[in-house]
Amino acid sequence: MSTDRVSVTRTIPAPADRIFAVLADPARHSEIDGSGTVTAARGGSRTLRQGDSFGMDMRWGLRYATRNEVVEFEPDRVIAWRTLAPFPLRLLFTGRTWRYDLRPVEGGTQVTETWDVSTEAPLGRPAVRRLAGGTRRSMERTLERLETVVADGHPR
Question: What global pTM score does this model have?
Answer without folding.
Answer: 0.89
